[in-house]
Amino acid sequence: MAQVPQTFFDALAVRTWCGLALETLGRAREEIDAINVYPVADGDTGTNLYLTVESAVAAVEAVFAGHAARSGPEGPTLADAVRAMAHGALIGARGNSGTILAQLLRGMSQVLAGQESGHADGKTAHADGQGLRLALRHAADSARQAVAHPVEGTVLTVASAAADAACGAGGDCGTVARAAYEGARAALAATPGQLPVLERAGVVDAGGRGLVAVLGALVETFTGERPRDGAATVTAGASGVGEDASPHGECADTAAGAGRDGPAFEVIYLLEAEDTAVARLRERLDALGDSLVVVGGDGLWNVHVHADDAGAAVEAGIEAGRPYRIRITHFGAGDVHTTGAERPPRERAQRAVVAVVPGEGLAGLYAEAGATTVLARPGEPPASGELVQAVRRAHAREVVLLPNDAELRHTAAAAAEQARTEGIRVALIPTRSAVQGIAALAVHEPERRFDEDVVSMTSAAGATRYAEVTVAERQAWTMAGICQAGDVLGLIDGDVAVIGSDVTATARSVLDRMLAAGGEMVTLVLGDEAPDTIAEHLEGRVREGYLAVDTVVYRGGRQGAVLLIGVE
After folding, report:
1. What is the pTM of this model?
2. CATH of 11-241, one of 1.25.40.340, 3.30.750.24, 1.10.760.10, 2.102.10.10
3. CA dist., res. 318 & res. 295, Å (int)
């Protein structure tokens, strides 16, 4: 169905572009994976780009939904939308191409956020063709700066060509977008002549091919017409891909034509750090390996490097700041995990549990119980692709999936459906809180029949009431009345039940309400911001007021809520 063209680059155009880019990459993903020979022939560039854009889409949709809930139908500004797009891509970036695409989107957002020019009321803020030209130029330049040792014949070459073509075009956003697309297509077709590894395999650069797809979606956004498919630029079939390909990164610092000997691991993590610390980190990682790309800013970075010593790459991040969402891929094994140690290939297990958890402490608890975990930091929910990868990582014939968040149910359902198409038997238990997941995991018995195990886990989760104590970020209407920014909120089963001024007092009130209906076990999960004495106070309250009720306390880390409570 043809899209209604956007005349200017406004928030709606950002939303449309992201959605179309995801659709386009979805259609081209397998083809892009098939021609992926650079950095290594691991066949995941298309998937990595798709997951990166999927995260950007989720962030943009969240901004639209949140603005509608707060402000009605007016919608977010262009600055709101492009910043969300860039942030979503940054936190969801995968692989070399995904990391570079995240920086391209960030570069565009930096320009577009400052290009709003509309009516005095700000409701029609937008950028025009000139703004788009400047955005594409800054995007290409900033992506090059993010790469330690740029190499021509890669996605960087394609991005620069797109920017050059856009800057040479006049007119509106549609004209500029089409010029950028055609410039990128021409540059992509020339990549085999710039990198011998591509010429030997008879393909164009996979990352560049993905960028052409994203720019094609930009053309469709502003013209309503889908441009001719960039697949025609693949110079040969993919049947020989990987047979004699060299292990360079899309922006690797090794010379084209080198042999297969290259770093053993791909290391990726998000990093909270200051600019000065990141500058030192770049130098250290550059000495450890190649394909170094560090993107981001304003205290949050996405770090990507290929290295033989994965542990040293992570330790460098720890010295620079606070790394998290650490992902280490051993190129030979094709297994993704979150430790520095190489795991040998293993036989597929019969059954596994995959769980989304809100904090590092709970991630450790779940992992000790044998679950494969996906960390969901505050404001950064995982995309369905990330859950699918976790299911694959569990390496089991049967998987029980615990989303542990009511808002993740549809995302988890999409992931489960995708995993089923790959022959994995997946059961989704609709847990709405991590404490329900703890209850389900406590009765998990992989030796039982799959259906019996799922029923038992579902019953345990359903029998667990859940609550959280958090601090209000803004004034809002709630089921318990109007709250102000800074108020302490006690939510029971997802609804605000208590509004208070003191964390401990509010938590006690919530606990009393929950135990009024009975219970045998209380689970307390403390966030980093919980008062030091709150656990002792609540445990004492349970001992004094509720006979035969046990209490267990866990440290959840940076989980968003000050306190999670479960009552079984």
Report:
1. 0.63
2. 1.25.40.340
3. 17
Summarised one tens digit per residue, pLDDT across range 101-111 is 999 999 999 99
Cross-strand pairs, 323: 271
Residues 393/335, Cβ–Cβ less than 8 Å: yes
CB 327 within 8 A of CB 338: yes
| CB 323, CB 268: distance < 8 Å | no
pLDDT tier for residue 260 given thresholds of 50, 70 and 90: very low
Copy the structure tokens of residue 254: 């090794």
Among 473, 388, 312, smallest CA distance to 94 is for: 388
Q: Residue 164: CB partners within 8 Å, gap ≥ 6? A: 183
Which contiguous run of DSSP H or E holds residue 481?
strand 481-483
CATH topology of domain 268-337: Alpha-Beta Plaits (3.30.70)
Spatial contact of 438 and 389, defined as CB atoms under 8 Å apart: no
pLDDT at 425: 92
Q: In this predicted structure, what is the pLDDT of residue 195? A: 86
Is 333 a residue whose pLDDT tops 60? no
First to last CA, the chain: 50
Range 330-356 average pLDDT: 57
Say whether pLDDT at 337 is over 90. no
CATH of 465-567, one of 3.30.1180.10, 3.40.190.10, 3.90.550.10, 3.40.1170.60: 3.30.1180.10
Alpha-carbon Rg for the chain, nearest whole angstrom, is 25
Residue with tokens 């066949």: 43
| pLDDT of 371 over the 60 cut | yes
CB 256 within 8 A of CB 244: no
